[in-house]
Every structure is written in C-alpha cells, then in structure tokens.
Design a protein that fits this description.
The complex is a heterodimer of chains A (116) and B (119). Chain A is an all-beta fold and 116 residues long. Helix content of chain A is 0%, strand content 50%. Chain A contains no helices and eleven strands. In chain A, the strands form two sheets. In chain A, strands 2, 4, 5, 6, 9, 10 and 11 form a seven-stranded mixed β-sheet that branches. In chain A, a hairpin with a 3-residue loop joins β4 and β5. The N and C termini of chain A lie far apart (36 Å). Chain B has 119 residues and is an all-beta fold. In chain B, the strands form three sheets. In chain B, strands 2, 5, 6, 10, 11 and 12 form a six-stranded mixed β-sheet that branches. A four-stranded antiparallel β-sheet of chain B has the order 3-9-8-7, with no helix packed on it. In chain B, β7 and β8 form a beta hairpin. Chain B is globular, with a radius of gyration of 14 Å. Classes of the chains: A mainly beta (116), B mainly beta (119). The interface between A and B is medium-sized, with 28 and 30 residues.
C-alpha cells in the first residue's frame, strides 16, 4: 500500500493563479479531508468528504473547492491564489463506518505552497 | 464547539530524561477520543498514542504514556527515556465518538508543542 499520496510536494504560485493539489489513497477509506498548517495555529480543517459525491466544509473553506468523484481521489482546488493561502497542506484519510471515531487518521506527506 | 489547547509552545528535555507535554480540551460530550501526533522535521504526521474517553486506564505505547483526567479535561503526554529522535512538534487532537459511524466527527487539533532533545 502506498497509503496517502500528495502531489506536488512544493509549489510556488503568483497571486491570482489557480491550481489543484492532488490527493489519493489506496486503503479504500471512505473519509478524506484536507488541512492547512500554519505556524502557531496547528492544523485546521478545510474540507472533508465521507464518500464519493459527498463533500462538506470545514473550519476554513473560503478560497478552496473540492470534489470527490471516486473513493480514491480527493483533489483540492485553489480558485484564485492569495498570499494568505501560503501554507502547508495535508490530505488525510481514515475508515468511517463502525469504528465510532477510534480509527487512526493517515496523513499524506504534505504540500508546501507559497503564493507570491 | 470543541477546542483543544496546548499551552506550551516549546519544551526542552535532556536525552534519557522524562518530559510531559500538556493538553487540555473543552467539550460537552461524554464519549470521544484523544490522540497525540508527532511531526518530525520531515513533516510527516505520525500517530503516537490514542485514548478512548470511556476507558479509565491510561494508554501506554512503549516509552509514551498519557495521563488522562476526564473530569479536568486534561490529556498530557509523558515521554520517558527521551531520545534524539523524539525531537519534533507534538499535536494533541480530539475527535467525537459517533455511534452511527462518525459521518462528521472531525479531528480537532491543538496548536502544537515543539520538543527539543538536548544530547
């Protein structure tokens, strides 16, 4: 198993550009999520999905879009990049049903994004 | 809404010594899970230890143990015999338990404690 993979590892954008951060998992997990990590603020939830075709907003969704067309993939789209979106982005997945929240959440290696 | 607080932005410990990282949380729920994650310089998030709120016994994983005080809403992490490889950012996290399978029980993180290990 490759686990949770993210591409790219690093990215530099100019203000106003758009891009998609890719996330894939091969563990057949229903639940997938995106976090951003900023100094002194921990990890904050951007969007999450409980299955193909089902997504919802997290704590900081503005400026980001997601879709979930398959169980494996959960891309994060930046529509018009802003310097405030400079951050490290993590994708994560875990099984959903039956564990009552106990299951370990598996994280990807992260993407460091800089918006100039 | 639930919140997680880590009041120690940075900690330092001598190699082979013991260190305790603090975490408090706020919730009105009675059933939930608590986690400690380690993030070394590689950025990878690694689960260190997990505690189920309905269990009174404190979780242990080798040199890592927790002191779970449910009434005080406290969940500290003790690292014994500290090693250079323990140097990392440590995050405390909370998740609600959901008897229906957890459709929306999100993982809520504290702001982290940066642990340095001195040789």
């Amino acid at each position: 198993n490759a686990g949770v993979t993210q591409t790219p590892k690093f990215q530099v954008l100019k203000t106003g550009q758009s891009m998609t951060l890719q996330c894939a998992q091969d563990m057949n997990h229903e639940y997938m999520s995106w976090y951003r990590q900023d100094p002194g603020m921990g990890l904050r939830l951007i969007h999450y999905s409980v299955g193909a075709g089902i997504t919802d907003q997290g704590e900081v969704p503005n400026g980001y879009n997601v879709s979930r067309s398959t169980t494996e993939d959960f891309p994060l789209r930046l529509l018009s990049a802003a310097p405030s979106q400079t951050s490290v982005y993590f994708c994560a997945s875990r099984p959903l049903w039956g564990d009552r929240g106990r299951a370990e959440q598996f994280f990807g290696p992260g993407t460091r994004l800089t918006v100039l | 809404a639930q919140t997680v607080t880590q009041s120690q932005p940075e900690m330092s410990v001598q190699e082979a010594e013991t260190v305790t990282l603090s975490c408090t949380y706020d919730t009105s729920e009675s059933d939930y899970y608590l986690f400690w994650y380690k993030q070394p310089p590689s950025r990878q998030m690694i689960l260190v230890i997990r505690q189920e709120a309905y269990k009174q016994q404190n979780a242990t994983e080798n040199r890592f143990s927790v002191n779970f005080q449910k009434a005080a809403k406290s969940f500290s992490l003790k690292i014994s015999d500290s090693q250079l490889g323990d140097a990392a950012m440590y995050f405390c996290a909370y998740r609600s338990a959901d008897s229906y399978g957890g459709a929306t029980n999100k993982l809520i993180f504290g702001t982290g404690t940066l642990l340095a290990v001195q040789p």
